[in-house]
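Incident log, support desk, overnight shift.

02:14 A customer reports that sequence design results differ from what the structure should imply. Their input is reproduced verbatim below. On-call engineer (initials T.W.) acknowledged and began investigating.
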């Protein structure tokens, strides 16, 4: 602004200088021409600089020139200004100058306005050219978009770089092309190009997704928008078209949709219920199987805390479980399966196996729980256990059949002894003699001892065949093994040479005695049967402490060893090499040992034969503590 003001004042000073010079030149000219013109003519002469000053310098310069001219004229008249007609000339000069100044100033302002409008037009033209350049840069910069303009008849007028790239026609080729060129043949035949322009004209603007052609003849799915360009007077100037290739986008959208519906169909059909929660425990998704299992419709539980699906104490603790995991990152259930209780809508609970997976994406962590209803499988398991218990019992009773004759023989001994003692006492009492009393007392004591022995045998047998629940008690390993051997070898005393190695003494285990004895008897019977055809038959019964608080009991023989055909399936039911074998013995043994908290396995005996090992839980107060 200051520069402009400075420029203006310099300009004015120059102007006034020019006025002054013009007046001086005119005065000199007038003085020179005085010979030809009279004094009067000098005023007329000064009209020239006045006109020039007024026209080029404006009112100020004109007045200045007029006054200077007046002064100079007075000088020429040598001070002879007479009142009366002497004043007429200068006054006429001043009036004429005033008129000239007014007209000149009008001409000046007109000239200025013309100049100003001329320079404004030039500025506007420059601005327009700059905007056009920027616009075309912008349009060409949008390379993902084909942007082009059609004339009212549908011929290309403007074609951007994006259109070249997308459609394949260079700008020079495209200009003048009819828009039908860009439509596939069927759309062209159906008159779609014209219909599209008509629609844009009537609606002003519309967009759609449709197929278009490239120069090479290939088709692509385009998102097209067409706008009719109408000028303020309502005339159609043409159409602006913006077009984007969405083939890839549509394909990935379709792939995503296909993937999602595939996943949905899997989740609808898998028997496992699926529940997805966020890291705050809010339910995000609830599968059809989950609806069936828990009895809640999905819309009723979405957004609720997942603990509504669990009974106490998990219900109250679940928030804490989640918080702990999010804080520490240490998983407890994630990645593994766990048997827990679920809570149905009707308030009943059911056993379920829960596996939880974790997924993180888009800044949020979600957990997916797969729930398997164990109600049926637990019922089946309970039934299997029931049947197995039945089977074990039957096996024992049938084992009793084999033992019966020998047992009768064993019972016979004490009963015969009791009979003999009682008969002897009866004979002695037939003729009572006080001297016989000590003998009678001794006979009765022996009879009572034999009766107790018989009672003990009967009780042992009754216990053995009695059916009962797993009834654990603390049992001394040595006593347990020796008693089992005595029972198992009844009637087979000569079928094998039995050796014990039960170390250390006093080790106790927590087991169901009857069941473990049945296992040992079974193993001994198998060993004896395997060795039946050989003359040197040896049976070893040993025990030793194992790491982890277990005691290992082994039954080994020097028989032929287990046949290879069955060695890897020994503990499976109905696996037998015997013509009349049921193949149930070892599978029952395994069930029993596992129910007692141990395990059973087989290995060939070094030097020939078979060895069966079983482990049992050692009790705390056993002598062998500290392993
Ligand atoms: P079963 O005695 O009715 O065949 P088991 O389950 O008790 O059923 O035994 C399965 C099979 O294991 C037997 O048929 C036999 O082939 C093999 N077996 C078991 N114990 C021994 C052993 N001590 N020596 C050799 N083979 C054995």
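02:41 Re-run completed on a clean worker. Output:
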């Amino acid at each position: 602004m200051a520069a402009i003001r400075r420029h203006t004042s310099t300009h004015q000073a120059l102007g006034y200088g020019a006025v002054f010079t013009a007046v001086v030149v005119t005065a000199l000219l007038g003085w020179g021409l005085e010979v030809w013109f009279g004094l009067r003519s000098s005023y007329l002469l000064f009209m020239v600089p006045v006109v020039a000053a007024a026209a080029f310098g404006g009112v100020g310069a004109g007045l200045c020139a007029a006054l200077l001219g007046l002064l100079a004229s007075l000088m020429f008249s040598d001070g002879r200004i007479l009142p009366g007609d002497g004043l007429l000339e200068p006054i006429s000069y001043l009036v004429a100058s005033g008129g000239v100044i007014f007209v000149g100033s009008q001409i000046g302002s007109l000239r200025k306005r013309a100049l100003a409008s001329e320079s404004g037009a030039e500025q506007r033209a420059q601005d327009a050219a700059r905007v056009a350049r920027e616009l075309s840069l912008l349009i060409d910069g949008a390379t993902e978009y084909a942007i082009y303009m059609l004339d009212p008849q549908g011929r290309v007028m403007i074609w951007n770089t994006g259109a070249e790239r997308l459609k394949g026609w260079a700008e020079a080729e495209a200009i003048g092309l009819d828009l039908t060129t860009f439509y596939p043949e069927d759309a062209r035949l159906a008159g779609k190009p014209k219909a599209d322009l008509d629609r844009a004209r009537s609606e002003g603007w519309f967009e759609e997704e449709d197929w278009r052609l490239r120069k090479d003849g290939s088709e692509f799915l385009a998102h097209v928008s067409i706008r009719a360009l109408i000028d303020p007077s309502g005339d159609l100037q043409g159409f602006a078209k913006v077009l984007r290739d969405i083939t890839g986008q549509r394909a990935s959208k379709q792939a995503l949709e296909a993937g999602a519906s595939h996943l949905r169909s899997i989740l609808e059909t898998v028997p496992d219920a699926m529940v997805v929660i966020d890291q705050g425990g809010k339910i995000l998704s609830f599968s059809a199987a989950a609806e069936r299992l828990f009895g809640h419709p999905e819309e009723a539980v979405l957004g609720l805390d997942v603990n509504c699906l669990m009974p106490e104490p998990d219900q109250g603790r679940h928030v804490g479980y989640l918080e702990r995991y999010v804080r520490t990152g240490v998983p407890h259930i994630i990645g593994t399966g766990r048997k827990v209780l679920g809570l149905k809508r009707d308030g009943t609970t059911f056993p379920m196996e829960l596996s939880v997976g974790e997924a993180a994406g888009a800044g949020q962590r979600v957990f997916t729980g797969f729930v398997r209803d164990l109600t049926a499988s637990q019922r089946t398991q309970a039934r299997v256990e029931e049947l197995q218990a039945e089977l074990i019992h039957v096996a024992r009773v049938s084992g009793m059949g084999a033992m019966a004759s020998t047992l009768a023989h064993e019972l016979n001994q004490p009963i015969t002894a009791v009979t003999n003692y009682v008969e002897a006492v009866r004979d002695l009492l037939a003729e009572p003699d006080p001297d016989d009393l000590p003998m009678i007392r001794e006979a009765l004591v022996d009879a009572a001892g034999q009766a107790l022995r018989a009672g003990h045998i009967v009780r042992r047998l009754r216990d053995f065949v009695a059916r009962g629940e797993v009834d654990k008690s603390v049992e001394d390993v040595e006593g347990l093994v020796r008693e089992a051997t005595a029972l198992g070898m009844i009637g087979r005393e000569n079928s094998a040479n039995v050796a014990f190695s039960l170390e250390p003494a006093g080790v106790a285990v927590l087991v169901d005695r009857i069941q473990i004895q049945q296992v040992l008897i079974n193993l001994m019977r198998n060993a004896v049967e395997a060795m039946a055809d050989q003359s040197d038959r040896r049976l070893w019964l040993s025990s030793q402490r194992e790491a982890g608080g277990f005691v290992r009991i082994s039954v080994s023989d020097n028989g032929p060893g287990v046949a290879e055909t069955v060695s890897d399936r020994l503990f499976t039911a109905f696996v037998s090499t015997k013509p009349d074998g049921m193949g149930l013995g070892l599978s029952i043994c395994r069930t029993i040992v596992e129910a007692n908290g141990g395990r059973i396995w087989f290995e060939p005996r070094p030097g020939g034969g078979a060895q069966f090992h079983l482990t049992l839980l050692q009790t705390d107060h056993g002598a062998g503590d500290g392993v």
